[in-house]
Every structure is written in structure tokens, then in C-alpha cells.
Design brief:
The complex is a heterodimer of chains A (504) and B (49). By secondary structure, chain A is α/β, with parallel strands linked by helices. Chain A has 20 helices and eight strands. Helices cover 57% and strands 11% of the residues of chain A. In chain A, helix 5 links the parallel strand 2 and strand 3. Chain B is mostly helical and 49 residues long. The radius of gyration of chain B is 21 Å and the shape is rod-shaped. The chains are: A alpha/beta (504), B mainly alpha (49).
Chain lengths: 504, 49
């Protein structure tokens, strides 16, 4: 059969299959940088500044966009004013985006409780999105020369007492324009989705952003905790971008384009309430993913062009960005390549399949085990979801590719025990299923979302997520984002519903 | 608590030192995980023989 394929076709198909390994190799590379953060971080410069200037607590205005946040805003304000930060260097501005619930009353009470420290800024026309709300607040705050730094947060997040000063200490470096913190999922009780997100945030924040620190470039200042030096925010116009769904990523890119350094401090902790179900996650992440499509296109001329931008144009940064951004394409490409090879050159397809999945196994072990050690407290709550992140089916394939003889004997025995002959057709179908699974897992994850929206089927959706995997669920959302952007679908700011169950 | 009271408690350099140690530990954790992975691969190879 091999002769049926010319060399070019074989190279193309091999490339299609091995494209599935690109995100895996990139993940290993990214995680290998994290250890370097132990010896290559910003703390020596902070120490130098602290020794020279003493404490680093710039006068900070906290901007809190709020739309119908009556359930959470009082706690948020109380926690903010109680932070370990000089009282005369901290002001809280809550920008009420024309809330229709009890938010205005709650905020008026807080203004009276903390005179001169808490300010209620009311927008009469709301619903335009977070960026517009923030800009209303920024306009008021920057009109006054009191503040030296601005902390932009979400209404539901809970800062630990020392978080702001841990972030602020980095601003003593004249090169640093903005700092972000480690957002942790804080819903209690934490359902399965909260635990998946908790583990995801170890990998996507505590791990990835440390690696980005090592590279000297950050992909995103978390929307719930971004501390800007006044000059750096003014350098980008003193406003947040309103043209996209990823205003925090655009702000991050624009700040770095202006020559400022942007940092992540993994020891500054912020707790947030994240979506509790698939539909909520889908809505939130679709907005993020569409925003990332917009960022990718807007900065098309910068990627992999270090001569155009020393930070954003770096190869490693581009590799990390695009392996996440194009993950669904890589997965579909690998499956399509394997299925075609199955019919034209099965032995070769089998070899490629094993190479791909053994790479997957090594990456899975490295990323999962290392993530557990990066944030052991979160790992204790989310270890099962961490292990199940790729999904039960993918784990079975991983075990099979690592230990085929054991598995084959067991499977044959299992089939024979129920009277089903483990013949050629059954084996072929099983192999085809495994080949298709990289792409098929996204369809299964999408089915989990569909099931959740359909009455009695809702009960099946958690099981489907554990089966298909949380990672494939995120890939399915990214793929949907491509489609929505290609169709030019309307950009709506869908607020994530918050119930105030963050304990922090 | 007054500002001066808080400042006395803060010890920014001590806090910084603690965070630096946390970061340094990541290097050792990474090496430990990599060592475990190498051991697992070697075990698998030995098992195959």
C-alpha cells in the first residue's frame, strides 16, 4: 500500500499527524521555563528598590466595574478597604453601570461608611460592556492627579490582605508598567466545574505566566487584577480598548508596545468566582476566545517578528500563543491525517499514532505532576480533575499506547468474557475510533454543553465532560470562536453570573 | 490599625525573601518531576525487555 502514496503525500500526511504534537512539545517547553523563574525573576530588582526607597506603596485608585452586583459588591468593598495598605494611599471607585438591582443603595451606604475612601460613580446609560464602564471611571480618576497607580478589578474578586502591596512593589522599577496577580477559583462549595477551572488556572496562570515572565513578555493582565502605573496607562491613552471582546489582552499588548514591562506575581493571590456550569463557561470562554482571534489578527504584523517588537515578536511567545490559539486545528489535522493513513498505509499510521500518543503521555505526566507541585493547596482540592483534564477516553488511549500488550490481553479477555469475538473488524473500528478521538473529543465536549441545555439530559453533562475532557471542551469553544468571528457574529458582552460564594 | 502600625508589621523585605524562596523551590520541584519522569521511562523500557 505504501507504494500507492507518493513521497509528497506521505510527507504532507506525516506533517498533518505530527501537527498534533506541536502543542504538546510547546507545553513541555513552556513548563520547562517555569523552573528558571526561580533564578530569573523580578524580585532582585524589587529588593534593590525597597532597600533604596523603603516601602513601595504608591497612591492607588481601585476601579471596580459593577453591573447588578448587589450580591457581592458590599463584601468586595469591605475587603478592599481592609487590605494591608496605607489607608491614605488607597481609594475605591465603584463604577455602577446603570445597575437595576440594589447595587446603588449598597454603594451609597458604603460611601457613608468609608468617607473619602469609597466613591460611587454612576453611569446613567449602561450595558455597553466592561471596557466602557472602566473608561467612565478612568476618566474621573485620571482627571485628578491624586493617584499614582490604578488597580482594575472585577466586582466579585476577593483580594488577600497582602495582594495589592505584593503587586505594587514591582512598580518601583521604572521599567515596569503593569502587574497582574494569580487569580484562583474560590467558589465554595466547589462543584466539578469549579475544580476543573481551579486546576486549569494553575496551568494557565501560575505556570504559564511564570514562563512568560522568564521570556519578559506577558500575554494577558488578568481582567480581575491588573495594577497599572499611571504613566503607563496614560501612555496608551488613559483608556481601555472598546473595540474587542478581550479588552484586558489588548491593554496588555498596548502597554508592552509602548515599551513598558508587564509582570505576573504568582505570590499575589486573588480569589474569583468562576462559572459553575458548562453553559456559563462556554459563554465566558467564547468571549475570551473571540477576543484572542481579534488580538491575533490585529497584531498579525508583530508575530514572530522580533525586529518589529522585541517582546511580542519573540519566537517562544508566538509559539505559546499560537499553539493555544490553533489547538483545534492541530487536533483536527492529526485525526484527519491518521484516518487517511489508516486506509492507505496502516502500519505507518500505527507508528505515527503511537509516537503522537506517547508524546501526549509524557506531556500529560510532566504538566500534570508539575502543576500539582506549583500550587499544592489547589491541587489537593482539584487533583482528580487535574488527572481527568484530557478526559477518560484520552487516558485510556494514553495507557494503551504506553502498555499495548497488557491492554490487548485484557481487552481480548473482556470481549471474550461477554461472548464478543475480538476479530479484525472490531479491532479496526477500535483503532479508527482512537485515530478520530483527537478531533472527536471536541464533538463529545460540545455534546456535553448541548446536553446541559436540554432538561433531563443535563444530568449527563458532567459525565460527558469527564469522558471527553475539559481540555477538549476549551478547544471546542475556541473552534466555535473561529466560526463566530468568520461569520462576523455580533459581539455581545455577556456578563458571567456571580452569586457571591467566594470565600477566599 | 494606624498606617504606621501596619508598616511595622509588613516587613516588605522579609516578605520578598519568602516569595523568592517560593520561586526558587519551583526549580527543585521541576527537577524532581523530571527525574520521576525519566525513572518512569526507564522502568517502561526495562519492562519492555
Amino acid at each position: 500500500m505504501a507504494s500507492a502514496l507518493d513521497t509528497t503525500a506521505l510527507i504532507v500526511l506525516t506533517g498533518m499527524v505530527m501537527a498534533g504534537a506541536i502543542p504538546l512539545v510547546a507545553a513541555c517547553y513552556q513548563f520547562s521555563l517555569i523552573g528558571l523563574h526561580g533564578i530569573r525573576n523580578h524580585y532582585p530588582r524589587v529588593e534593590q528598590a525597597l532597600r533604596e526607597h523603603g516601602d513601595a506603596t504608591p497612591r492607588t485608585a481601585i476601579v471596580v466595574p459593577a453591573w447588578n452586583e448587589a450580591a457581592v459588591i458590599a463584601t468586595t468593598v469591605d475587603r478592599l478597604v481592609a487590605m494591608d495598605y496605607p489607608e491614605d494611599s488607597l481609594r475605591v471607585y465603584v463604577v455602577d453601570d446603570a445597575s437595576t438591582d440594589a447595587t446603588p443603595e449598597v454603594l451609597r451606604a458604603k460611601e457613608l461608611e468609608y468617607p473619602g475612601r469609597v466613591f460611587h460613580l454612576r453611569r446613567d446609560k449602561g450595558g455597553e460592556g466592561k471596557a466602557h464602564t472602566l473608561n467612565h471611571g478612568l476618566g474621573v480618576i485620571l482627571a485628578d492627579d491624586w493617584c499614582e497607580a490604578l488597580l482594575i478589578i472585577d466586582a466579585d474578586v476577593i483580594f488577600e490582605p497582602e495582594t495589592l502591596r505584593k503587586m505594587a512593589r514591582h512598580l518601583s522599577d521604572p521599567e515596569v508598567g503593569a502587574v497582574t496577580a494569580y487569580i484562583k477559583e474560590g467558589s465554595r462549595p466547589a462543584n466539578y466545574m469549579a475544580r476543573f477551572i481551579g486546576f486549569e488556572y494553575i496551568t494557565a496562570q501560575a505556570a504559564s505566566r511564570r514562563a512568560q515572565n522568564v521570556l519578559g513578555v506577558l500575554a494577558c493582565l488578568a481582567g480581575g487584577a491588573q495594577l497599572h502605573k499611571r504613566e503607563s496607562l496614560e501612555a496608551i491613552g488613559g483608556r481601555i480598548d472598546t473595540s474587542s471582546l478581550a479588552e484586558d489582552t489588548f491593554t496588555t499588548f498596548m502597554t508592552q508596545r509602548e515599551g513598558w514591562r508587564v509582570l505576573f506575581d504568582g505570590n499575589a493571590i486573588v480569589w474569583a468566582e468562576e462559572p459553575a456550569d458548562i453553559l456559563g463557561l462556554w459563554k465566558q470562554r467564547l468571549r475570551w476566545a473571540r477576543g484572542n482571534v481579534q488580538v491575533s489578527l490585529r497584531y498579525m504584523w508583530v508575530w514572530f517578528r522580533r525586529d518589529r517588537d522585541r517582546r511580542l515578536g519573540g519566537f517562544s511567545f508566538g509559539l505559546f500563543w499560537f499553539t493555544i490559539f490553533l489547538m483545534p486545528i492541530f487536533m483536527i489535522s492529526a485525526s484527519v491525517g491518521l484516518v487517511i493513513l489508516f486506509f492507505v498505509d496502516f502500519p505507518y499510521s500505527w507508528t505515527l499514532f503511537r509516537v503522537l500518543w506517547i508524546t501526549n503521555a509524557v506531556t500529560y505526566l510532566f504538566v500534570t505532576l508539575f502543576s500539582f507541585t506549583i500550587d499544592p493547596a489547589t491541587a489537593r482540592r482539584t487533583w482528580f480533575e487535574g488527572l481527568m483534564f484530557p478526559g477518560a477516553v484520552a487516558l485510556v488511549i494514553i495507557v494503551y499506547t504506553c502498555f499495548p500488550p497488557l491492554f490487548e490481553d485484557y481487552l481480548r479477555g473482556a470481549f471474550e468474557a461477554v461472548g464478543v469475538p475480538a476479530d479484525g473488524l472490531l479491532v479496526s473500528l477500535a483503532i479508527l475510533f482512537a485515530y478520530v478521538w483527537l478531533a472527536g473529543s471536541m464533538v463529545a465536549a460540545w455534546a456535553a454543553k448541548e446536553a446541559e441545555g436540554r432538561g433531563r439530559l443535563r444530568i449527563l453533562s458532567p459525565a460527558l465532560v469527564y469522558t471527553a475532557g475539559y481540555g477538549p471542551l476549551l478547544c471546542a469553544i475556541t473552534f466555535t470562536a473561529y466560526v463566530k468571528e468568520a461569520r462576523g457574529a455580533e459581539m455581545k458582552w455577556d456578563k458571567t453570573e456571580k452569586t457571591g460564594k467566594v470565600l477566599g | 490599625m494606624s498606617d504606621s502600625g501596619r508598616r511595622e508589621q509588613w516587613h516588605p523585605l522579609r516578605e520578598l525573601d519568602r516569595d523568592r524562596r517560593t520561586e526558587r523551590r519551583l526549580l527543585w520541584k521541576e527537577l524532581a518531576v523530571l527525574a520521576l519522569l525519566v525513572a518512569l521511562v526507564l522502568l517502561r523500557v526495562a519492562f519492555a525487555r
